[in-house]
Amino acid sequence: MEKKLTIAIVGATGAVGQQMLQCLEERQFDVNLKLLASSRSAGKVFTFNNQKVTVKELTENSFDDVDYALGATENDLAKKWIPWANAKGVVVVDNSSAFRLDENVPLVIPEINPEDIKKHNGIIANPNCATIIAMVALHELHKEYHIKRMIVSTYQAVSGAGVKGIQDLENQLKDPDAPCTAFPYPIAYNLIPQIGDFDENGISKEEWKMQNEARKMWHHPDLLVNCTCVRVPILRSHSESIFIECEKEVDVNQARELISKGQGTILKDDPQNKVYPMPLDTTDQDLVYVGRIRKDLTDPTGRSLALFCCGDQIRKGAATNAVQILEKLIQ
Amino acid sequence: MEKKLTIAIVGATGAVGQQMLQCLEERQFDVNLKLLASSRSAGKVFTFNNQKVTVKELTENSFDDVDYALGATENDLAKKWIPWANAKGVVVVDNSSAFRLDENVPLVIPEINPEDIKKHNGIIANPNCATIIAMVALHELHKEYHIKRMIVSTYQAVSGAGVKGIQDLENQLKDPDAPCTAFPYPIAYNLIPQIGDFDENGISKEEWKMQNEARKMWHHPDLLVNCTCVRVPILRSHSESIFIECEKEVDVNQARELISKGQGTILKDDPQNKVYPMPLDTTDQDLVYVGRIRKDLTDPTGRSLALFCCGDQIRKGAATNAVQILEKLIQ
């Protein structure tokens, strides 16, 4: 009888960590689970495969009995504990952005570049949530038409800022004076066109991620992306309005067929019958919904397309993608 | 002593009609006010300049004693009553879309094409709300750089669907099963990428308005606009993420200065210090807030710019603009 693998979730009590636990269970991982978090959360108890698992404090010695780790911590912490895990031979799938653009670290969406997983040196980075949703939506179109340029406006859920973001929205909807703990301004009945800090060109970190991470995963260093990232008062699904300009002329019906057959996508595109992607429908779903597909009539060359897509930011945008990488690693 | 003018508001009990009343009062119109609505609303009483005004039922004879009328009714009704008003010599500023593209009817934003008011034949059309907000934001840039192409993604408040839209959001936030009276799907915690019906190309009526109305007001028949209109769970300000491609090379600092000096706009653009337009800030304001101005780095010619703008949909997007037209008419 084979020995059961031991999987650690680091940052187990946050929104993404909790979703990772749920995804492992749903995807029938028959493993020992180790839950790690700060001393503040140690002692909390969660259920995995009908067994109680107690959260342990993350320390340098946490990884002695671990085979793989899923990381759901902020960058600073990730930079600290991932070397501890690697030193014990533990391979880490990390959801922070600390290592995403490191050339020694593959950045992977399993539907897009699973072959990059093999090149890992102990770390595989999980991409930014908005980037995952856009790239899954666009991948079949990119393979067929070769995307040169993307203009993206996002509608990003408060869950992108974790449990605090969700609480801010819920509290502020009840009481407009409830404090802002996750965002610079109230988010109830509001939009905030800032996700991450801005550089001197007025472009936010989140906006750069879409270009830089997409270039890396598509192995397409010339890709041009202009992105405006906006936080909206939605709980947990991100939506994106995307315009793409391609090398080849696009065909709307073919584009629809490509997306309907694509991995990780579901076509929701019959607007005259009120069928289109909406974030409420993708909540707690792993698939990216794609619709509103139409020719961009402002490009006379016929090589541009507009579409709208939605995906659950905590699932496919974070936890599910990491667990899918782990599945491929273990195979 | 001059005789006081009599101004009628037709559709006086809706969200836009009520805002028209408030705008007339704020802008110190010393006039007799006549409030007209359906028989259902007749008898309701509102206060204007400290006097009670009782809503009367709209009939063919409603305009005998009227000088000017502000229209805040749906298209079907507008087509019915505006001829009654015109037959009595009453000039109408109409907020419906029934006459906007009629070549005998000027379509006007006073900051943009006030000279067109003079060409009226009894009707002046008030533009679509999202179009007004975008064009006010862009007008100075258009004068300087000549906009060829716009790619717009909107974030439109529920007030665009009137009082019912506001009630749907408020009710559904309290009870997710509250009925949808204004929208095809629940809007609380959701986005709906549909505003207006779709044509066979998958483009909605609201999306066409941005191109067709902008072409008319800028007298720019070659303007190309690709627009994705999305309803968001916000009460009454519309926001828009806009990319423009111009004839001339753009300069970000000059663009900021043009907007800061422009009519109807206020520059909110210091993202590193968390200054950018947000719909909560523009609620109940007449100015359009513009920020997030940056070069579109995906256009190697340097002729493209990205920005984000917000404006109160009921005020500048509807009632204020109509009252401003009326001011010019009376002058």
TrEMBL record, chains A, B:
Keywords: Amino-acid biosynthesis, Diaminopimelate biosynthesis, Lysine biosynthesis, Methionine biosynthesis, NADP, Oxidoreductase, Threonine biosynthesis. Belongs to the aspartate-semialdehyde dehydrogenase family. It is an enzyme of class 1 (oxidoreductase). NADP(+) binds at residues 13-16, 40-41, 159-160, 313. One of its GO terms (biological process) is lysine biosynthetic process via diaminopimelate. Residues 6-120 form the Semialdehyde dehydrogenase NAD-binding domain. Phosphate binds at residue 100. InterPro entries: Asp-semialdehyde_DH_CS, Asp_semialdehyde_DH, Asp_semialdehyde_DH_beta, NAD(P)-bd_dom_sf, Semialdehyde_DH_NAD-bd, Semialdhyde_DH_dimer_dom. The active site is at 129 (acyl-thioester intermediate), 238 (proton acceptor). Catalyzes the NADPH-dependent formation of L-aspartate-semialdehyde (L-ASA) by the reductive dephosphorylation of L-aspartyl-4-phosphate. It comes from the Bacteria. Its EC number is 1.2.1.11. This is Aspartate-semialdehyde dehydrogenase. It catalyses: L-aspartate 4-semialdehyde + phosphate + NADP(+) = 4-phospho-L-aspartate + NADPH + H(+). The keyword DNA-binding does not apply. SMART domains: Semialdhyde_dh. Pfam families: Semialdhyde_dh (PF01118), Semialdhyde_dhC (PF02774). Gene3D superfamilies: Dihydrodipicolinate Reductase, domain 2, NAD(P)-binding Rossmann-like Domain. HAMAP family: ASADH. Homodimer. GO terms for molecular function: aspartate-semialdehyde dehydrogenase activity; NAD binding; NADP binding; protein dimerization activity. Pathway: Amino-acid biosynthesis; L-threonine biosynthesis; L-threonine from L-aspartate: step 2/5; Amino-acid biosynthesis; L-methionine biosynthesis via de novo pathway; L-homoserine from L-aspartate: step 2/3; Amino-acid biosynthesis; L-lysine biosynthesis via DAP pathway; (S)-tetrahydrodipicolinate from L-aspartate: step 2/4.
